[in-house]
Amino acid sequence: MESVFQNETVREILMRYRRIWAIGHAQSVLGWDMEVNMPREGILERSVAQGELSVLSQEFLLKPEFIELVEKAKGIEDLNEYERGVVRVLDRNIRISRSFPPEFLREMSEVTSQATKAWEEAKRSDDYSKFEPWLDRIIDLAKRAADYLGYEDEPYDALLDLFEEGLRTKEVERMFDKLEKELKPLLEKIMEEGKVPQSHPLEKETYEQAQMEKVNRWILEKFGFPLGVRSRLDVSAHPFTTEFGIRDVRITTRYEGYDFRMTVLSTVHEFGHALYELQQDERFMFSPIVGGVSLGIHESQSRFWENIVGRSREFAGLIYPTLRENLPFMSKYTPEDVYLYFNMVRPDFIRTEADVVTYNFHILLRFKLERMMLNEGVKARDLPELWNDEMENLLGIRPKTYREGILQDIHWAHGTVGYFPTYSIGTLLSAQLYYHMKRDLNVEELISEGNFGPIKDWLRERIHRHGSIYPPKELLQRAIGEELNPDYFIRWVKERYL
Ligand code: MG
Predict the structure, then answer these.
(1) What is the CA radius of gyration of the chain?
(2) How far, in Å, is the centroid of ligand 1 from the Cα of 395?
């Protein structure tokens, strides 16, 4: 493999960067092990080990000689696009790392670890007062983080950019305004027309984990997932994907024991994340441009497989025989039942269980609230009421407990503010990619044949192989010649559900 990195300065940067890469590699293994294998009480030592490794990695990144090299490389004019990618990613990481004083980071980590405990207790007892003071501290920390990072228009911009490079609040607002305006009447119409059900008897059917695992593995094999060669499927409380590198990408799922749609679609979702990592250009190995470029683009890949492929009628037909073989209750149902069951639409309280149509409203609600916290001085005391009002406005339902309202997500307890919009970006973008893919491929026919190669190649060519060379917006321009446009998703919802 000939190196794509020729410039001497960049080569020196990459030689030194290997250490940072190796620490990241080790941290991923520790993180994966924590979720999949670690006994409960290992948490104390594991978090200290992880914290120390983060400090070590930061030390290497912020070494004056290293920063000098990156600065020098910024001034070189004839770098190729790979080398420019390396410099852009490192420059951004250094800028973000240098923004926060060490006392602030220490405070952040102490507050969020206590806030997470308080959140768990508050959620268990459905007692918001236990979390409220911590949420005020988190809001304060988020504002200070935004100030340290700097912004032009509003504090929320600074936090958003951490998760989606170059994205601004105004753009998110425009996207959600459009969605709210168009999707609300659409949702009403979908409920009225009843082309897809609000509930299905398959939700109640129970299964054996071992049988269900066979189904998940069958699907992954159909997708050509390199199980045992470059990947694994394991079980964890919350399904996730982690990449140790390009050749070792692991996913997890979970088995509730009923409502098998959840385990199947979450496995398919994580496969989408994993494929992005697996299909990168191997010449990027050990460099900072390895790995998906942003959360929104990453989520577009997982949602593509989950929504476009996994919820299609053709996919229901494709997996029906293996469902029938492994799940005894399946003999009472047809492939069409599976399709309808995978596509139920029903306004409900919990984001993670929401269907494709109502999901974006859950994100919109959080976006509105986060923005109020940062820009309008809204306090934790006012948030439950604001949450419930907005839920009623968007979905016509009002939570009766904190658990099904403001206490449902862990994100704020973790200090993560500005993250939620990336979920919607992924969903919208997955539909946009689909319509572009349809110009080149007969997507439905390929799914019904179980012939996923051309779909994977299409995604590799346009998105995956580029790793993080280009910032998200530029990647999209190169891939499809457009910027993010919610119209495609609205069209997809109309075609699918009306
Ligand atoms: Mg995801």
Answers:
(1) 23
(2) 23
Per the annotation, the verdict on 270 as an active-site residue is yes
Please count the other Cβ atoms lying within 10 Å of the Cβ belonging to residue 288.
24
> How confident is the model over 354-372, as pLDDT tens digits?
999 999 999 999 999 999 9
CA distances from 74 to 8, 70, 78, 128 (A): 13, 6, 10, 49
CA angle in degrees (0–180, nearest 5) for 90-282-292:
50
The CA-CA-CA angle for residues 273, 352, 297, to 5°, reads: 30
Model confidence over 196-249: pLDDT tens digits?
Answer: 999 999 999 999 999 999 999 999 999 999 999 999 999 999 999 999 999 999
Work out the pLDDT band at 102, boundaries 50, 70, 90: confident
Q: Is 492 exposed, middle or buried (0-12, 13-18, 19+ CB in 10 A)?
A: buried
* d(CA 77, ligand 1 centre) in Å: 37
| 8 Å CB contact between 367 and 170 | no
Phi, psi of 455 (to 5 degrees): -65, -45
Distance 239 CA to ligand 1 centre (A): 9
Q: How wide is the angle at C-alpha 305 spanned by C-alphas 327 and 446, nearest 5°?
A: 85
* 0.90 surpassed by pTM: yes
Task: Find the 284 Cα to ligand 1 centroid distance in Å.
Answer: 23
Q: How far apart are CA 320 and CA 315, in angstroms?
A: 8
C-alpha neighbours within 13 Å on the C-beta side of residue 448: 9
Per-residue pLDDT tens for 397-435?
A: 999 999 999 999 999 999 999 999 999 999 999 999 999
Residue reference for tokens 């398919």: 268
CB < 8 Å & 24+ apart, contacts of 223-229? 223/271, 223/275, 223/305, 223/452, 223/456, 224/452, 224/453, 224/456, 225/271, 225/274, 225/275, 226/278
CA of 149 to the centre of ligand 1 (A): 26
Residue 465 amino acid letter = R
CA–CA distance, 222 with 291 (Å, rounded to integer) = 24
Going by DSSP bridges, is the β-strand pair 248-253/231-235 parallel, antiparallel, or unpaired? parallel
Quote the pLDDT of residue 426. 97
Contacts of 495 (CB under 8 A, 6+ apart): none
Identified catalytic residue from 270, 277, 314, 370? 270
Q: Please say whether the beta carbons of 425 and 299 come within 8 A.
A: yes
Alpha carbon separation from 8 to 20, 21, 72, 386, 469 (Å, rounded) = 19, 19, 11, 56, 19
- 348 neighbors 398 (Cβ within 8 angstroms): no
